[in-house]
Structure formats: C-alpha cells, structure tokens
Predict the 3D structure of the following.
Amino acid sequence: MSTPIFYPKDTLVSFTKDEIMFRESVREFAQKYIAPKWIEIDEEASKDPMKIPLDLIKKVADQGLLCIPCSDKYGGQGGTYTMATIAIEELAYADPAVALAVYTLLNNGWPFALQLFGKEEVAQEIIPHVSKGEAFFGIASTEPQGGSDVANIRMTAKKSGNVYVFNGEKAYISGVGEVQVLPWGGGWFLIARTGEAGHRGLSAFAFLAKKNGVIRKGWYPTVYHDIGRHGLNTGGFKCENFELEQEYLIGEENKGFYYVMEGFNLARILVAAATVGGARWLLEQAAQWFKTRKLFGRYIASFQGISFKFAELYAKYEAARYFVYRAARLADKIYIEKDPAYNPKDLNVPVALAKMYGPELAAELGQEVMKWYGAYAYTKESPIHRAWLGLFSYTIGAEGAQNIMRYIIARDLLGSEYVRD
Amino acid sequence: MPNIIVCVKHSYDVQQLRYDKTSRKFLLAEAPKKMSDMDRRAVEEALRIKEKHGGKVIALTVGNQDSIDTIRQAYAMGVDEGYAVIDKDFESYDTNNVALILAQAIRKIGNFDLVLFGSASTDGYSRQVPPKVAMYLGLPFINFVREIRLEGNYVLATSDYEDGLYTYRVKLPALIAVTLDINEPRTPTPAAILRASRKPVTQWTLKDLGVGALKKYFEVLDSYMPETPRKHVIFDASSDDKIPDAVQKLIDALRREGVI
C-alpha cells in the first residue's frame, strides 16, 4: 500500500506574446535606469538608511510597474500576476541587491491583497497613490517577539466608537522610512488583535501611518541598519493609542489571519521572483569570470570542482524559476481569471516551493560565486557581496521564514494532523 | 494637425542572432525578432510630434505573418492605427520590391503629411528602402535625421553627415529617415501592452494593393558570419631580462599592423 500524493494541480508554464513583449520592455527600462545605479544606491543607503532612491521609485511608477495586477479603476495596470512576477525578476536582475525589486514587489502584492479583501472606497483612496509612487503599501505582521507565530500577535486594536485604537509594536517591517518620505505617505496591510487569543482573534487593517502628507498621532517609527539590500528601508514602530477610522478594517473583524495568509501567498511568489532575478545576475558574473580567470595555466572551470558545482546551481536556478512562474500562473487562474476549478489553497504548496527554493538557491549561489572570484570578491570594490547580502535576507524572513515554507509543504501533502507536535 | 505614417520592420534581433560554427550561416529559424531599432525611434518621434501638434500616427509594416507583432509593439507605444501587408514570400524580395509595396500601401492609406522611417533596418541594414519609397511616391526625402521640427506646412530636419550637421526645410508632405540619435524610445507599460493586443491590425495582401508580379533587380546570394582569424603571436617576456626585447617586438608588430 502507498498513499498517493495529489499535489500539484499541474499548470504548464509558458508566456503569452503580451508577457514576452512586457519582459523586453521592463528589461530595457531596468537596464537603462536601474542597473547603472544600484551599486551607488546600495552604498549610499548603507551609510544612511534614509537615503531612499525616490527618483527611481518615481520612474518605476511612471513605467507602470507598481500595482500591476490591480484594476485600472484604482489606477492599477489591469495586468496579470505573471506580469508582476516578470517585472520583479527583471528589476532584481538589474539590481541584484534587490532594493528596488522588493519595493516594487511589496507595492504589487499588498495593494492587490487590499483590492481583494478591502473596502471599495479604501482601495480607491490608497491604490492610486501607491501606483503613482506617492505612497507605500506593504505588510506589517512581525513583532519583536517573532514573525512566524502569526497567531500569537500581541498588538491590539480596540474598537472605540468609530475608530480602532492601536497599542503595541511591530518590528522588522519594510517601508518604515519610505512611508515617512513619500509625499502622500501610506502604510501597511497590518494585522492586530481584536478578539480572543489565537488566530481567530486577529483582524487586518489598511493601516495608514501617514495620509495626505501628514504623519498620524500615536505612531512612533524607528529605522534599522541592515547588512544588505540597503536601498529599501527596514524599521519598526510603536503604536500608543493610535487611532484609525473603522472603514480601514479589511474584510470582517477577526478574519484577518485568513486574509493575511492569502496575501502572503501572493507576495511570496514575487519574493521568490526577486531571488531568481538576482540569481541570474550571479550566474552571469560566474560565467564571465570563467571565461577570463586562469589558474595553474588552465581556465578555472576546467576543474570539475568548479564546473560541476556551477552545473548543479544552474539546475537549481531553472527549478526555482519554474516554481516561481508555475505559482504565478496559478495565482492568475485563482485571482485574475477566477477559474472555478482553482481555489486559493491550491497556491499553498506551489508558493511554498518557490519561496523555499529561490532564496536558498540565491544565497548558496552568492556564496559560491564569492569563492570562485576569490579575494577580490571580499573587497568593497566588488559588487558581488552586495547581491549576496541582499538576496540572503530572503533566507531569513520576508513574507515567511524558510522553515515555515517546509512546514506548509509537509502539512498540505501529509495532512496537518500528521505534522503537528 | 499632421497625419504621420511610420514604416516599421519586424527584424531579426541581431544581438541574439547565432551562427553555425562550421558553415558560419546564421541560424535564422531560431532567432527572435523585434521592431528594428531605428524604426522604434521613428515611432517615438512620430508620437512626440503628435503630442506637440496633434494629428494621428499610423504604423505600417510589410512582412510575414509574424510581422504583426511589430504593429502590436507600435500600438503598445501609442500609435493610433496599424496596417500590415502580409506576404509569405517576403523574405525573398529585394529592396525595390519592398519599397514598391510600401509605396502602394502608403497611397492606399492616403491622407498623410509625413512618412517616417528608420534610416536602416537592424538586420538587413541596406539603407535602400526609404529613398526608394520616396522616389516611388515623388516625395522630398531627408536621410540620417537626428532632429525634426514642424513649422506650419514645413518640416525642418537636421541630418547628421560625417562632415557636419545639415538642416533642411521642406514642404509637407515629405519622407524622413531617422537615426538612433534622434531620441530614446519609450518602453511601454503593462496596461499599454494589454490594450495593444485588443486593437485591430488591418491586414492587406499584395492583391489588395494592386501589386502584381514583382521583378527582382538583385538577390542576396549568400550571408554568413565572417571569420576573423587571430595570429596568435607570442612575445616571450617570461623573465625580467627578456621584457625589453619583448616590448620592442610588440611595438614593431603593432606598427606593422597599422594599429599605432
């Protein structure tokens, strides 16, 4: 006897003519405007995390790369999720420290989640500003005690008349600096406790820390100094009796856990796409090096210790890329085409595969390319460490830790009763 | 408000063109295609003129069935109408044939003030089609243009020749061919690309244009990647005492080759 495994729902990955044209367009854009600047951005923001590349954020917005899957009635592009995925891969290829790619992915995935689950008037208020590059809209879930244990979030949002009053702290949140410096402001798809302990007491909010250029009362931000991916700001904030109007509640009260999990699935596809784009840049650095570098009178790739490892990593790169686009195609079926044969849970395993595999490939590849280059790669003159450190951040966290991805895969394949302790 | 027809070619993407290492023939069947680089600038320039003066921009191509992709790209950039003359024998036509077909198509579209081309296509690079179309249509022709200005019924165009820049003033209608220096073409947004795929492309055959049997004036007999053999000369500088001699020999060799 054996137990059949029914995953995955097969979806072939191929690209439409529109998507091929779009990839060429976004690649040309990214190579022209972002590739020449990414090292300078990474260096400047490493000294001062508030050196946010506002000019490039505006360019990315003008190119229509924010809110790609959002409806055009909210100023989105009315595109597919696969198009958003292509955009992120190409931006990361142009900026392998992935600052611009991650800014862009957050402002695709989370405005789209807001469109799916939020109120019409709130989507109409926020998404147009995000798509124009005037506001940031990311995710605020993690707290100082941890990020993976979403069900035990401590920040509270207590209803008082027409407002919710927030108290508590969020930590390791992308965009804390951006919200402060972008002209309109913005905030996060934020999750806070409105009810009982556990995941059934959580609600999601379109949490605007700054709106119409004004930072709201009771919001106290801090900016961190990261070790990589410097052009995108990470920070935390405290809420002390921060008041938010009740219309910013997303969906129903105490259902926030479910909305945020679907949002995570969407955003994880794009995170994985960023790591695949960065990995392509790293592979090309390696290929270039192998065509010039000789040791012991031979090209270094003539040593199988190097060429075989390169081949293995290339295989992982292709696998990671497949995982990413397979998940993106499924997201299109579920959320864009609304194909009744698919439902949001169909994304769990495909997305977890992409998010587990892409970041680990990119981090491993970065480390190997560093070693292949030798001592030069350990100098600040070499750009490789910037890509490596930027990409490495996605093995640590960002829309879910790596072991959470493993848990999701095992849970959905085996059944949750067999994987709980 | 000028009506502008821009002729665009669906060219082989020469940057991705590979060749067979033995025969040195190009592997055309697997080569991706895209709108010719200078033609993209012509579309961009037409759109900029429209943004300033109003009017309409029409894209026109002649080619195989896949050349419609180039009209879609022009639509994504923002042109108003797209026409494609489709002929399965397109690859075998010479530049006279292509010019004649385009001239007939331009006549059929009618009502134009300006016809724009790229000065040369990315793949063929013959530079013969624009002047021949001008000849067939009896239009004034300005080539290698890097700047265009409209003034009433006249166009001022600055051409870049090796010995300097020349500015010409001609009465409309006219035909102008532009270089890569004229502008930086726009990269279409996702929304523009999606809109483009819904726009109709008017397709014509040679019969629709009243073009009968085409006489070929010349044909391309062969095309291949030229071989550039290396001489592999080694100058021995393996020890300090050999370096001065090696340097002198290197300088002599470079002088012989006319490099310095």
Remarks:
- Residues 37-53 of chain B form the longest helix (17 residues).
- Chain B has a mean pLDDT of 94.
- The two ends of chain B are 55 Å apart (CA to CA).
